[in-house]
Specification:
Mean pLDDT: 81
Number of domains: 1
Protein name: Iron ABC transporter permease
Largest sheet: 2 strands, antiparallel
Distance between the termini: 38 Å
Strand order of the largest sheet: 1-2
GO biological process, one term: siderophore-iron import into cell
Pfam families: FecCD (PF01032)
Subcellular location: Cell membrane
Helix content: over 70%
Shape: globular
Radius of gyration: 21 Å
InterPro entries: ABC_BtuC-like, ABC_transptr_permease_BtuC
């Protein structure tokens, strides 16, 4: 009887009767991204004239009153919002790209971001309701995703058809958002503006907690789906032959992507292109092995925190919303993807 050998580049963790096969390079990249994320959190928390000891004391409520206010009420909630929303967008982008077999198929590209934004803006300027804009954003994301897949001839749609339909749906929701803002009074338009560009300033605490809960449930679920998602990179006939239930997997992947995106937009608004760049960073650093959902989440959180820090400090005291910073960073990268390689290449 032959003893199973460990595949090259992998390690095995034995725990009693069970064993876990893991990819060494992906695990190393994940630990490196987690360490960089922790350092970035510390750096953003202590930036300016605030030292490490002063920030720690303020965080524990034992420091100067003004420093405690700065750390606990202003910086920490903002950092948490950026970390969670970036992680959700990074993971959702990885799922969506794998589902569509296209590196451009991110929630923003297929209209989910615009749908969530339109519903959030509508709750402020068009049909004010007792529901918070963050609650309506999730409904908008689900509506946009459903329209995209229905009009693209079902969840099996692939490639450019999926992208083009998504762009059309996003354009319709974007036009609706602009129309509502154009017809609204100046105060309502100003209140709705952060939901159109992406901002981490004074985010709703309830929405942040809901996003934290969604990530706690969504990331393990995405990891469980990763093996079948990897097989879905092949043709439908090959995936079915390997035992993948395509309809169920596509429905689960789409639902999870919509939930993560809607919760992220409910916190930060449409922070553009995080979902495009973060999965590519994870794949580039970790190699094209598996579906790097967790590494994409870490990369998305890191990118969002750094973009927010740049927006706060680059032209201080003028603040640039994090969504605008990400658009400036991501636009050249998007052009590079389109010009360098065929957009239909598998992620």
């Amino acid at each position: 009887m032959s003893v199973p050998t460990t595949p090259p580049g992998h390690g095995v963790l034995h725990t009693g009767r069970h064993s876990l096969l893991w990819h060494r390079r992906s695990a190393t990249v994940g630990m490196a991204l987690a360490a960089m994320l922790l350092l970035s959190l510390v750096f953003c928390l202590t930036s300016g004239d605030l030292g490490m000891g002063e920030a720690l004391a303020a965080l524990l409520g034992r420091g100067d009153e003004m420093q405690t206010l700065l750390v606990r009420e202003l910086r920490l909630p903002r950092l948490l919002a950026g970390l969670l929303s970036g992680a959700a967008l990074g993971a959702a982008g990885c799922l969506m790209q794998t589902l569509a077999r296209n590196r451009l198929a991110t929630p923003g590209m297929v209209g989910i971001d615009n749908g969530a934004t339109a519903f959030a803006v509508a709750s402020i300027v068009a049909v004010p309701t007792t529901l918070a804009p963050s609650a309506l954003a999730l409904s908008g994301a689900a509506t946009a995703a459903a329209l995209t897949f229905v009009l693209a001839a079902g969840a099996g749609a692939r490639g450019y058809r999926f992208i083009v339909v998504g762009l059309g749906i996003g354009a319709l929701f974007g036009a609706a958002t602009n129309l509502m803002l154009a017809r609204a009074d100046i105060d309502a338009a100003n209140a709705a503006y952060p939901w159109t560009v992406g901002s981490l300033n004074a985010r709703p605490a309830l929405a942040v907690w809901l996003l934290a809960g969604g990530l706690a449930l969504g990331l393990p679920l995405a990891k469980l789906l990763a093996r079948a998602l990897m097989l879905m990179r092949f043709s439908d006939s090959v995936a079915i032959g390997l035992g993948v239930r395509l309809s169920a997997m596509r429905a689960a992947t789409l639902a999870l992507s919509v939930a993560l995106t809607g919760l992220a937009v409910a916190v930060a608004g449409p922070v553009g292109l995080v979902a495009l760049i973060a999965p590519e960073v994870a794949r580039y650093l970790g190699g094209r092995h598996g579906v790097p959902v967790l590494n994409a989440a870490l990369a998305g959180a890191l990118l969002t925190l750094l973009a927010d820090w740049l927006g706060r400090t680059l032209l201080a005291p003028v603040e640039i919303p994090v969504g605008i910073v990400m658009a400036v960073i991501g636009a050249p990268y998007l052009l590079w993807i389109i010009l360098r390689q065929p957009a239909g290449r598998q992620p």
